[in-house]
Amino acid sequence: MIKIEGLVKSFGDLEVLKGIDYEVKEKEVICVIGASGSGKSTFLRCINLLEEITDGAVYIDGVKVNDPKTNINDIRTNVGMVFQQFNLFPHMNVLDNITISPRKIKHLSREDAEQLAYELLEKVGLSDKATAYPEQLSGGQMQRVAIARALAMKPKIMLFDEPTSALDPEMVKEVLDVMKDLAREGMTMVVVTHEMGFAREVADRVLFIDGGYLAEEGPPEQIFGAPKNERTKAFLGKVL
Amino acid sequence: MVIIEFLDSIRLDVLWNYRELFIRGLWVTIALTIVGYSCGLILGLIFGLGRMSTRKWLHYPSKYYIDFFRGTPLLVQILLIHLAVIPTIFGKSLGFFVSGAVALSMNCGAYTAEIIRAGIESLDKGQMEAARSLGMPHRMAMRYIILPQALRRMVPPLGNELIALLKDSSLVTVIAATDILYAAKVVQGASLRVWEPYILAAILYLILTWVVTKLVAYIERRYSTSYVPKRSKRRKLLFF
Asked: Strands A188-192 and A29-33: what pairing?
């Protein structure tokens, strides 16, 4: 479903990703782990072209994302993204945050969009917050609204960029629970995370990125139980 | 004693005889300010966005326009437009009002463009990323996500610009525009009094700027603190 070939990303002279090959299959949940600055967030942001790709290619459903002829907006409607800092639109209430893109991009009527929004809010457990503004919500609630907002476009793939890293500890679980539900429903997910417990429990495969390379990948039992790569062992030794 | 003599010598009847001149001046000043500011906002939006564009044919003309009108005195711009630009284009003068309005609009547009650019650039770039990740084209993201937020941040500097424009509009006196200051000059010439007409002109400007200041303060209170709409705020408009 997502095919990554020789992905290279440089910021000026600094090469952050040094050639990554990987393929994500449909309904797979992939967790990407690695130290800060290893390039794992950049890796994720290259998938929906929030970062321009320096070299290599990313294909989503066989369509080359970094082809100038590809309409990137069409691709992005099928690829939802959740950010570390939530990035909710502060000037809109929760309902408008969720309905703005289906209404403006897919031209859904307000009624249809709001009905969809209420369904999604129920799913993330925030039915009572429809008319609240982002500043009135806690971090965990904001992130759950952000997930609902991304789901409103009915994406086939969801990207999560450290979704719980900016949260107070007591709010991490409510967000992870929503993500677990999503995984159970068969959503294809790529999750950059520091939550090793989540990776171990939910991931189909775990990717360990180190120094811009895909150092090791495999099912969580292997990565966490018997890592082959010395760097993986060293990293897990520090975080577990 | 000197002060009493001075106060005795003030002759308000002179002003009363020329009241119509001042009333007309007041309207001309108000009209020039409103027209100049409205057109300035539109020009500012166009050139402010143009300057931020990555397209060279948009960026450079916008930059040169802004640099010229911010880098030259308004007095020079007024004379240039009234005596050179408009007669050359139309073959005749279109009167002081057109020339004055054009000069004030162009000047205000340049300053507004910088205010708009600064307002947009002050937003967290995650807002644009979130909008784009949902599949919004750049223009749609600007319209629904970026500009509504940036406009709120622009309220205080745009208010300052309005007050500055109101006062700077007095420069159109040099092209014989019949504004407040021009009325004062006429009265001075006719009555050979200096104190009364200029003090009255100053008072009229002071009243106008006071009203604008209060209006801007109201709008600021209303919009710049929180995005959550407040109830029963309308009553306050009456009392400033």
From this structure: parallel
